[in-house]
Design goal:
Length: about 450
């Protein structure tokens, strides 16, 4: 395979389309997230309040693999359009559940609603299809950055959405989902009408590969031919089984045998789990310490800005400094964040009635949350670039979907674990657990050069 010297045809146009669809989809995700727990509590009581986000995350995790499979067989345009279409159905069912006062229907609808998050995540890989290897990470990062707008604008639509809902005769808490439905419909239309698959979805955007050996272990470079039917270019009926797109489990097994791919998969899941673990418990920790909701909101907003606002910077670093190094830097930022979070928790517990000490602890907590978001951004963008550079064409797209699914499952597991950990040992224990979760990524980094016989690695 040869290194491309320029972006593929329609590359700039496709990237602009993905930025717009991610912005619209991000508004939809954030609009519902702002009121999801409140609507769940209204329909099913306080004990159900946390299940709305869990259902949405699980929906994104379950959808990641079939969306990637569709992208591998039929192209990114169809996969992303279907993702936003399913999320639109979820939004409509949420409003229906609110009107009918049906809690179980609401949770099922939230799972469909979460498919939009899977589509937003996979749009970064679509961006990589439209870039040369030299600009792959920064192109992906620009698409991720568009989520910043949605994350900031979405929650601010809660009050107007409630008024809109009442105007349409539906419960006020379901009103923001009307904005989400509009966002998903527009995102799907933008992709469906204006995106053009530059090549079969699993064809490489470049050759700066994670591991340049085929799954057969012969040491020969992977090859493919241009044709629309499959990733190998031959009609599906004539493609040998070993050349068809891998299954999700097969792709993960392939990654396990290739050190850099293994590092990317483990690090993405770990970075997301650590971020979720600490982030979801921070508001409770702050409220237990007497902090106001306004202050909690400011700290979480700073965290979200850390997650997305500097993503183009980390994309540039991954392209120019190296994706592995940038991912490791992200892990180091997260390690620093959990240390600061632990220190802030100890200081808050020992502050007693000292208002100045509590204020200082809050500042340190805010700094920890910003670093946590920055570390997540650096790690996820860099590892996404590594996965976009996998040289085995039949594995690349299925591995991307499997990795996104693992990331969401890890986040859901961390969210479920965080509550009991906080109850058992306070915010100190939450940060200690976050530090422990970083260990698998450190091991994956240390062992990334250990690959099966016959494998070669990119120098980068």
């Amino acid at each position: 395979m040869t290194e491309p010297t320029a972006a593929p045809p329609h590359g700039r146009r496709n990237t602009a389309v993905l930025v717009m669809s991610n912005l619209l989809g991000g508004i939809g995700v954030a609009s519902g997230a702002a009121v999801g727990a409140l609507l769940a509590e209204h329909l099913g009581g306080t004990s159900m309040g946390g299940l709305a986000q869990a259902a949405s995350v699980l929906g994104a995790a379950v959808a990641a693999v079939p969306l990637a499979g569709t992208a591998a067989r039929r192209g990114r345009r169809l996969a992303l359009s279907w993702g936003y279409g399913l999320a639109t159905v979820g939004g409509l069912l949420i409003v229906t559940a609110a009107v009918l006062d049906q809690a179980l229907l609401f949770l099922a609808a939230m799972a469909l609603y979460g498919v939009a998050n899977a589509a937003n995540l996979q749009s970064r890989y679509a961006a990589a299809d439209n870039a040369s290897a030299a600009t792959r990470a920064r192109t992906m990062a620009i698409v991720v950055w568009a989520t910043t707008v949605g994350s900031v604008a979405g929650p601010n639509l809660a009050a107007p959405g409630a008024a809109l809902g009442r105007a349409f005769g539906v419960p006020g808490l379901s009103g923001p989902y009307l904005f989400a439905i509009a966002g998903y419909v527009l995102a799907g239309l933008v992709v469906g009408l204006f995106y053009r698959d530059p090549r079969p979805a699993s064809a490489p955007a470049g050759t700066r590969d994670v591991a340049e050996t085929p799954a057969t272990g012969t040491g020969a470079p992977a090859t493919s031919t241009e044709a629309p039917a499959t990733s190998t270019g031959a009609p599906a009926a004539t493609v040998p089984p070993e050349e068809r797109p891998a299954t999700a489990l097969g792709a993960l097994a392939w990654a396990w045998r290739h050190g850099r791919a293994r590092f990317a998969v483990v690090t993405m899941a770990v970075a997301h789990a650590v971020m979720i673990m600490v982030m979801v418990m921070t508001p409770l920790h702050m409220q237990h310490g007497g902090m106001s909701l306004e202050l909690v909101g400011i700290v979480i907003s700073l965290h979200v800005l850390g997650m997305f606002a500097l993503s183009p910077v980390f994309g540039w670093l991954a392209d120019s400094w190296g994706a592995v190094r940038t991912a490791v830097a992200g892990l180091a930022l997260q390690a620093t964040a959990v240390v600061l979070g632990f220190v802030a928790a100890v200081a808050a517990d020992g502050a007693g009635a000292d208002a100045e000490a509590h204020a200082a602890a809050t500042v340190v907590t805010a700094a920890a949350l910003v670093l946590l978001g920055l570390g997540w951004s650096a790690s996820v963008i860099a590892t996404s670039a590594l996965l976009a550079g996998v040289g085995e064409t039949r594995v690349r797209v299925p591995l991307q979907g499997a990795c996104d699914a693992l990331m969401n499952y890890a986040g859901a597991g961390a969210a479920a674990l965080a509550g009991p950990v906080l109850a058992f040992g306070g915010f100190q224990a939450v940060n200690i657990t976050g530090a422990i979760l970083l260990v698998p990524a450190a091991i994956a980094f240390a062992t990334r050069r250990r690959v099966r016989r016959g494998a070669t690695l990119a120098a980068r």
